[in-house]
Every structure is written in structure tokens, then in C-alpha cells.
Amino acid sequence: MKKIAAILWGLLVLVHAGAQNPAQQYVNRQSHSGVLKDAVWGVLAVHRDGRTLASLNQSQRMVPASNIKLVTTGTALHYLSPEARFRTELGYTGEIKDGVLEGDVYIIGHGDPTLGTRDSIATDNGALFWRWKSLLKEAGINAIHGRIVGDGRAYEGNLEHQSWGFDDIGTYYGTGTNALSFYANAIDLAVRAAAPGEPAQVQQTYPETPWLHFQNYSITGPAGTGNSLYLYTTDLAPYAELRGSFATDRKPKTEHFANKFGALTCAFYFWKNLKETDWEVTGGYADIDRSGYIRNSSFVAEEKAGEPLVVGQTESAPISAIARITNVRSDNFYAEALFRAMGEKQTGIALSDSCQVAQRQALIDLGVDPDGIRQVDGCGLSRMNYVSPEWMVGFLQAMQQSPAFSAFLTSLPHPGEGTLSTLLPNQAGRESIRIKSGSMDGVLCYSGYILADDGTPQVTLSIMTNHTTASPKEVRAVLAHLLKLLMEEI
Fold it and tell me: What does the H/E/C string look like for 438-487?
């Protein structure tokens, strides 16, 4: 009887397996014997007709890494509208007499992350500064007996979220954003190896930051030891230390690190442009500290900042274009700008708690359970973010009903673009996949859509892996094959 029962059970298993589609069978095999068998991972893929094509631990909440940018860009497009733009205002304090301003010029930021960047959607510095000078001339200002003040007071609090890693906040991807930034608050350093045991050879190339006291404590390591350079910096004081090692067999390269003084950098470059174009500017450049005092380039607080009279403004590219770069490049800086913009609009405060309030309202408006996700930042750099594949699929389905869905779908990359540049390199029809990747140490996720020939979503999916010890290449290969199987269900 036992043998008969075992045979019958085996037949039932075979029948059940045969009834499953190839994607589900592959997920089952990988969960028991593949490189992910000891990982925490989950899958949910749902066809437009309601069929579940693959599922595993779909309600398990996991760290999504940059998959959280899907939620940030989606809610921002829905809540702020794809056509919305960031503005930057020009204003002044004091009096204008015979074309001379006896006072200060203020550059008043409202969160534009593209200022001073080299992105195609950004206005180049020459054209931007020309427009700012035109605004001053239209106000009757031809000379300035005062300072150029970078005003970032519109956003309160830290640039970066408090849960970000200490080593992350010195990198270009952990700069954090503020109301007035410049060059995405980054610093470029040209680095080359020196003799073993000696400091790496370092030169700051762009932007100039004359006020920054820079110390190079790096070491040139033996061949094969790689690159572990980090710039440790803070907005509390104008100091930065380069630490870590750069191996002797590494080729010279440009490393990108964090500049915590975006408002001051912006003021400096506009001041420099004015001087170079024969404007009379008798004062220097400055920013405004957390107490509301004008702080000069020597970091001395001089007097309480005024409330400038606004004479005009410039605007960024539309948020739809910013969301596109955010998702294709997985740009943390742009994602944080969108997240903070929602908080500023909803509550008048750009702290992370306020951003969560705004996003919660956007999720409710979309008909999505706001309690099904924990999101503390906009970019996914925090490991305090948690979401399940099931919730993510529900969110992606809800976005299809949003007036902003076309812009949202357009923002998503396909394999061969941005962070997906190496995914499914020889796969026919890979342009039908529109997904966002998310990765950090031990984490790899893909969420998004697979489109039909007419461009409509046919499969909505979320694949999340956490606590993996296999190499990213091995995990990526497993997820890529699963995506191929799901493509066959169209």
C-alpha cells in the first residue's frame, strides 16, 4: 500500500508540474536547487487576462534597492503631473540707484536637480547665466555692490537620509539633494596610482570649491587590490578626506564624489561668470547656513539673510524628462529631488517624513494600500525600505489607470539601456520589456512590464532577491532566463 501511495503521489506531482507553465516550473526548480535556493526571494508575474504566470513568496517584504524609484517616479508623475517643472528664482535685497544694486543678489532654489549638470535636458551654464543676468538687467541692475548669495532655504534638514551608510554619503550616488544644487552636488577627482604605499595621485578637476580643505589620506595598494576610494565629507564644515586604496595596476580614471555645498558652488560659478563678463561685483559669494545667516566663503556667518524681492525665474525640463533619466540611469540624486518635491508641495516642508506623507496621499489617490510599503527615501539607497512583489505588482497595475501612465511607461528602460545595458543582449524583441533594476550588495530586483505588440502591458511583474551569496552575474543570469520565459507568455 505504501508503494502504491508513493506512486500515486508521484503521479500527482508530475500532473501538477505538467499543468504549470514553464516560468513557474523554472521558479520552482531555482527555489529548490538553483543559486537562489538559500536566498530570500520572491516573484509575482500576472498576465493581463488575470492568470498568474509565476509566483513565489509574493507577499514577502524585501529590500527593493533602486526598484523603489518606480514608486518615487510613478507617484511624482501622478501627483505633480508630467508637465510640472522645478523653478529657480533670482532676487535681490537692498536698493537700486542709477543701475547699481546696493545690496545682494540671491539665487533662490526650489529643488531643480539639473542646475549645472551636463545632462541633455539641462540648460548649459553659459545660457543659464545669461538668462539670470538678463533678469537682473530687466530689473534695472547693471552693477552689484554686494554679494551673490546661494539660497537653499526652501528645503529643510539633511541632504541625505539618516539611514544611508557612512561610506555612501561621500560618493556621487549618496550626495543627497537640496533646494539649490549645482552639478548634481558632485566633485570630480582625477586619480592615478603612485608607488606602493604612497598616497594615490589626486587632482580635483571640476567643479572648483576654493573653500574646501581637502586632505588626501589614500594609499596606493598592491596590484590586484582594486579601488576602495571614498571621500568623507559633511555639510557641517568645509573639510573633506579621501581615504581608501587604489591599486598600482589600476588605470588612471575620474572618480565622482559628494559636494555638500551645492548652494555655495552655484553662487561661486555665477559670481565667477559675472566677473568674467565684466560685471561690477564688489562683494564675494556666499550661502545661507542652517540658522538663516549669510555665510561667506571663509565660513563666517555675517548677518541674518534677508527676504529678497524676486525679479524672475528660470525653469527645469519637465518632470517627465527628469523621471526618464531617473529610471534609465537609476539616478539617486534625481530620485531624491522628485521625492522632496512631493513633500514640499504637500506640506511646505521637504523633510523625509513630509515626503512620506505626500507619497501616502498619492498612493491612496491611485487606489493602492499605503500600508503595504515602507519607504523612507526616494532612491532606494536605504536598507530600511521594504516592499513585496505582490504590492509592487499592484502598484504597477494601478499606475496603468493614472493620467500620467504614458509618461511613466516612457520613463522605464528596456534591456540594452542604462542599468540594463548587459541584460538579454541577444534576445529578440527585448524592447518589449520595460523594467527597472535594483541592486546593492546581496540584492537584485527587476520590476515592470512586458508589452504586447501594440505597446500595452500584457505582463506585470516583480522579481526580488535578497541575501544572495552568489555572484551578481549568476543571479542576473537566473532572472534573465525567467524574463525570457515570461516573454513567451505574451
Answer: EEECCEEEEEEEEECCCCCEEEEEEEEEECCCCCHHHHHHHHHHHHHHHH
Report the C-alpha gap between 437 and 70 in whole angstroms. 9
SS3 state at 42: strand
DSSP state letter for 153 = T
Residue 16 pLDDT exceeds 50:
no
Q: Which residues contact 24 (CB under 8 A, 6 or more apart)?
A: 53, 54, 55
Q: What residues contact 346, with CB distance under 8 A and at least 6 apart?
A: 79, 354, 357, 358, 361
DSSP per-residue letters across 394-409: HHHHHHTTSTTHHHHH
19 to 22, 31, 47, 142, 444: CA distances (angstroms): 9, 18, 17, 79, 29
Question: Which has the closest alpha carbon to 281: 129, 93, 100?
Answer: 100
In contact, 377 and 157? CB cutoff 8 Å: no
Give the burial class of 251: count Cβ atoms within 10 A of its Cβ; 0-12 exposed, 13-18 middle, 19 or more buried: exposed
For residue 252, give the C-alpha cell: 588612471
Cα 266 to Cα 180: distance, rounded to the nearest angstrom: 8
In whole angstroms, what is the distance from residue 143 CA to residue 279 CA?
6
Tell me the three cell numbers of residue 127.
545660457
Amino acid identity of residue 329, one-letter, is R
Under 8 Å between Cβ of 179 and 109: yes
Helix H or strand E segment including 116: none
Distance between CA atoms of 461 and 450, rounded to whole angstroms?
8
Other beta carbons within 10 angstroms of residue 50's beta carbon come to 6
C-alpha cell at 343: 513633500
Domains and CATH numbers, the chain: 23-81+319-487 (3.40.710.10), 183-258 (no CATH)
Strand partners, 90: 107, 312
pLDDT digits (tens, 9 = 90+) for 53-99: 999 999 999 999 999 999 999 999 999 999 999 999 999 999 999 99
**d(C-alpha 365, C-alpha 172), whole Å:** 34
Output the pTM of the full model.
Answer: 0.93
Give me Rg for the CA atoms of the chain. 26
Q: Which residue has the cell 509566483?
A: 55
What pLDDT digit, counting tens, does each position of 457-480 carry? 999 999 999 999 999 999 999 999
Q: What is the DSSP string of 268-314?
A: HHHHHHHHHTT-EE-S-EEEE-TTSEEEETT--EEEE---PEEEEEE
CA 198, 202, 204 angle in degrees (round to 5)? 160
Q: Using CB atoms within 10 A of its CB, is residue 468 exposed (0-12), middle (13-18) or buried (19+)?
A: buried
- In single-letter form, the type of residue at position 20 comes to Q
> Helix, strand, or coil here: 222?
coil
